[in-house]
Give the backbone structure.
Amino acid sequence: MEEMRVLLRNVGHINPTSVKEYMAAGGYQALKKAIAMKPEEILAEVKAAGLRGRGGAGFPTALKWQFVLSEDAAEKYIVCNADEGEPGTNKDRILLSGDPHSIFEGMAIAGKAVGSNKGFIYLRAEYPYLFPILEEALAEARAAGCLGNSIMDTDFDFDIEIRSGAGAYVCGEETALLESIEGKRGEPRFRPPYPGVKGLFGKPTVINNVETFANVGVIMDKGAQWYRSIGTENSPGTKLFTLCGNVVNRGVYEFPMGVNLKDIIFDIGGGIPDGKNLLAVQTGGSSGAIINADQIDMPLDIDHVSASGGKLGCGTILVIDDTNCIVDIVKNNLSFFEHECCGQCTPCREGGTRLLELVQRFIDGTAKLSDFDTIMDLSETMSLASLCGLGQSTPTPVVTSINNFRDAYNKHLDGDYCPVCSKERGRD
């Protein structure tokens, strides 16, 4: 099985900051084409391509843009969410460091489509080394007339600024990200109004992920029909996957939507090292579902992964071998989310702490059978009542791990420690 490098086509082949090399590879031709089109025509092309957001939710990109286009406002904004905070995820930094002009081009096309002249890239605080790369690439794009005023000798103006927060995971949530750009504490906003109506500085705003914007230029260049020939009917195009954990060949790979998870792990990934066996896989990052080895013969697209109880999300594939304890892994997930909770809403603030306490009981061997029901009731409350995706998805690894690995939890009940945890605590 080979990769299909559409978004990664230039990575490693051109100087990432050089606008000349990007243009020699066909770059900014899609923007030139889009500038000559009406906003509605650009929108129609993106809609026909079926592009769905690559940041996690899989929301139709054209529909999000339509909300902003429909608003009558003197100022509108394009925001690129580059706050790649999900543990184990590296895809966005590969694009930003290896082909930043493709992101700029996608943002500018979005600006033309909705009537915006200003864009912001919200960069993860832990990526300070990307600042000089992006700034140099922006300077070259402006000097070449691909950004700034009168782009390509037309009446279209569009420029981009880089902003960063202080490293809070919750700022990956779109409204918390907007708060952070505005200089406020990074906390999610109550919705409605949605960002498409009242977003950055109270103006209509498009917010898309790095990978989503990287798809836009490809669609405008090659056309919606070509784009739809890749992937699945409901999830066209390619997807970047971060393969990590207990697998031989770790890395970021690009495949058409619908690629089989089992093939990625054992063909591309080379399987489990050191003669160990596959225990579990977590898809979509730390907030994703944890499935067992019998469930990995699964197409990786937005709908199929959602049906497994999780989400395709950021495309992270965490491979877990049989020397690990699932309960301990879930505890680590919950520790991360408890730390990153902004504390604004009660279901997430109190629920996350309580979930961690309950799972810790299993680790300590003090859990009771009734704790399963408490966990499930609390998880449902958090999923339904939390203000943002952080609290809503925190229970996902807990619920799916209990459903798929009930025996692992049972081994911890009433002081009956599992072999892995017993060994770690010197109880062999």
